[in-house]
Design goal:
Blueprint (H helix, E strand, L loop, with lengths): L1 H79 L5 H9 L2 H10 L24 H5 L3 H8 L9 E7 L3 H14 L6 E5 L10 H4 L2 H4 L3 E5 L5 H10 L2 E6 L14 E5 L6 H9 L7 H11 L8 H16 L10 H12 L3 H23 L3 E5 L2 E7 L6 H15 L5 E8 L4 E7 L11 H8 L7 E4 L2 E7 L19
Parallel strand pairs: 1-2, 1-3, 3-4, 4-5, 7-8
Antiparallel strand pairs: 6-7, 8-9, 9-11, 10-11
Length: 485
């Protein structure tokens, strides 16, 4: 029995050992299970991260595909669009900015041309009531051209024109247009000089250019000394001017052929009919005529006329960026500014310039004061400039009306160091009717005191008045030397 008991104990001990071993195994199993669970969580997290990364990658791939499709689509459109050949690129690059802008604006039709029925003036104030009546009013210049010696017009070698005025420059341009491709001309820009006995120093400097040549003198009036100089040195002198004056001395020069208009047309349109007698005056030149002679033509658009005049004056007549027009190349450049841009472009640029001018003229005119000037009641202003003075003078009349002041004339003056004198501008209202005052009387009375003299035409007068021990501009104010008509 003792042996049995011992055996039993051994077996129990063995059993316990086995149980202990099983527990260890179970514990190990549990640990393994626990590790397995942890691995499972890790795997889930990894799977989740992998899934997220995969989605991002898919999105990137999709995004790239979309971009690729967009690029492909754009490329296909570009490939299908009409191709611009090198010739087209060259033509476009050769155009100036003004020409390219002009081409764009011309498609918009911003401004109406002569067919517009708005902004007209009454026919009662017009020199010519219809365009036909206007075009048929050049019989005097046509007769002059017809009676010239045969071939004399084509002998013109030199064009001498008024450099200060649109009228003079455009007259010279018409001569350029007539002789273009035929011969090279000499162009001499100069200024008016009406003194009877003093020779204009500008003429002295061009003696070699006019000697033995036929000169076309346009929009210029000179004194006796200057006409005698021209007659002496030039072969022939053809004069076309639009300012009537009593000067019988022209008839005594045998090599002079002179036409002086009667205030109904400007030198530009007279020049056009002289060189192109069988053609009607183009619209652009009619606008210049209407502005220069104050014709108040009822068949023109007043707004367009103002814009075109402003464009011409700022773009080339008074432009500080352009030299005086003295060569064929200069006038070819002028042709680009006139003909190579559209009607709408000129009107738009002119309108923008005009708005600036109106702003400035109103600010300047506000300084005008009511005074007596040689017996006339005037608005006076100490102001002188090469471009805006006429606009300022008209604004002074408007200002007087607003203030309730009744005036006869407006007077602008300014001292010029180069002339050692005051330059004086006098104007009455531009009504389209016959001038009310004899402005030439003013010029005769007070313009004689300075060598540069003066000139009156229609509604305006210009003269120089000296500043020395015996004369000053203030002598003319608050004085009754000249009485009103």
């Amino acid at each position: 029995m003792a042996v049995k008991k011992k055996t039993t104990k051994v077996n129990n001990s063995s059993t316990n050992k086995n149980n202990s071993s099983m527990n260890k195994n179970n514990s190990s199993t549990n640990k393994n299970n626990s590790n397995t669970n942890n691995n499972s969580k890790t795997n889930k997290n990894n799977n989740s991260n992998n899934s997220l990364n995969n989605n991002l990658i898919k999105k990137k791939i999709t995004s790239k595909k979309v971009l690729s499709k967009v690029k492909t689509s754009k490329l296909s459109k570009l490939n299908n669009s009409p191709k611009v050949n090198n010739k087209q690129r060259t033509n476009k690059s050769s155009e100036s900015f003004d020409q390219r802008l002009s081409n764009c604006i011309s498609k918009c039709h911003l401004f109406d041309d002569e067919s517009n029925k708005q902004a007209r003036v009454s026919k009662n104030y017009a020199f010519f009531r219809t365009e036909d009546e206007y075009q048929n009013s050049f019989q005097d210049i046509l007769s002059f051209e017809k009676n010239l010696p045969e071939g004399l017009k084509d002998e013109i070698d030199v064009v001498m024109y008024n450099v200060d005025k649109e009228d003079g420059l455009m007259s010279a341009f018409i001569a350029f247009d007539y002789f273009r491709g035929k011969k090279e001309l000499i162009y001499l820009p100069t200024k008016v000089s009406s003194h009877a006995t003093i020779l204009n120093y500008r003429l002295k400097g061009v003696e070699s250019k006019i000697k033995g040549r036929t000169v076309f003198l346009v929009d210029l009036s000179f004194g006796k000394a200057n006409y005698a100089f021209l007659s002496q040195h030039a072969k022939n002198v053809i004069i076309v001017d639009d300012h009537p004056f009593v000067n019988n001395d022209l008839k005594k020069y045998k090599n002079f052929y002179s036409f002086i208009g009667n205030d109904k047309h400007c030198a530009t349109t007279y020049s056009y009919k002289f060189f192109f007698p069988k053609k009607d005056v183009p619209l652009d030149y009619i606008y210049i005529d209407d502005s220069d002679r104050k014709l108040m033509l009822p068949f023109l658009n007043r707004g367009v006329q103002r814009y075109l005049t402003t464009y011409n004056n700022f773009k080339f007549v008074h432009s500080p960026y352009l030299p005086n027009f003295t060569t064929t190349a200069d006038f070819e450049k002028l042709q680009e500014l006139i003909n190579d841009v559209s009607f709408d472009y000129k009107c738009l640029v002119g309108k923008l310039y005009d708005e600036v001018c109106n702003n400035i003229k109103m600010q300047v005119a506000q300084n005008a004061v009511k005074k007596k000037f040689l017996g006339y009641t005037v608005y006076a202003l100490n102001y002188n400039d090469p471009v805006l003075y006429k606009m300022v003078s008209r604004e002074m009349f408007t200002l007087a009306d607003k203030r309730g002041d009744k005036i006869d004339l407006v007077v602008l003056f300014g001292y010029e160091f180069t002339s050692n004198a005051y330059k004086v501008f006098v104007s009455e209202r531009h009504t389209g009717k016959k001038p009310e005052y004899d402005l030439d009387q003013i010029v005769r009375q007070v313009g004689k005191f300075h060598p540069r003299g003066g000139k009156a035409t229609q509604y305006i007068a210009n003269f120089y008045y000296p500043r020395n021990k015996t004369h000053d501009i203030w002598d003319l104010f608050d004085d009754d030397k000249i009485k009103k008509n």
